[in-house]
What does this fold into?
Amino acid sequence: MADVRPLTGGEFSLFRELVDKEIGIHLSPTKHALVNARLLSRVRELGLGTFSEYYERVVGSPETELIRFINAICTNETRFFREPAQFTFIAETLLARLRREAEQGLRDKRLRVWSSACSSGEEPYSLGMLLLDRLPTDWTIEILASDISTKVLERAAHAIYSMERLDEIPLGMRQRFLLRGVGGQAGKFRIAQPVRSLVKFRRANLSSGQFEQLGCFDLILCRNVLMYFKSELRRFVVRQLVRQLSADGHLFVGHSESLHDYDVGLRTVAPTIYRLQRGAR
It folds into this structure.
């Protein structure tokens, strides 16, 4: 195993600038030890002696090592049905309205949802379970799930989780939408095919703002990621997300995030839940 010199202040500054440039996330000086820990195994794996050497490897191979670097740096913390008040709003208020409008011929029986920082898949699968549970079978449901990290996207596509996560999912949905592992998969469960079939995964960098090809969505979730961006980038990302909302579409953010002073045509319908105003675009 290679003997690696600890991450220096200068090296940390290089990585901070690279993270800011590539994905718009600002690493505070307190993250020095975290960056050292998350990159150390890869530096050793490559047989390098310094983080400076690894930095050169990263910037010299943007299609391979840069993606590995981003995978290592990004924090991916999530749960099934995280922020339950938002899921209650979707189930009891939003879907009820959409069903009424469809019955009155005011909209198609189609729902497009974007989980824009999906991590290891808990958020889009939670949405899939809820929508299958609450919408009639003649509705078409499409869920796009994206993340910057290819590592978590791969895990999400497998849809396999530890049984320790079971209590996060309502009992009725466990019975309908989960498959318990047996044999070598004992102690795990998998999201059932009807839910998995709703979700399409792809890599996307929110800081790029290049979303036009994705089309419009009735519901966009961008939760607990905006807080990692600098103020200017945060506003830019929100503007771009709003452009992807359909008429009267909803944008959900995290519990510690607020858009109350953003002049982008949204109105607050509940804490962390915003609706595009008619005629705002």
Notes: Strands lie at 110-115, 140-147, 160-162, 178-180, 188-191, 199-203, 217-222, 245-253, 266-270, 273-276. The longest helix spans residues 84-103. The mean pLDDT is 92. The two ends are 58 Å apart (CA to CA).
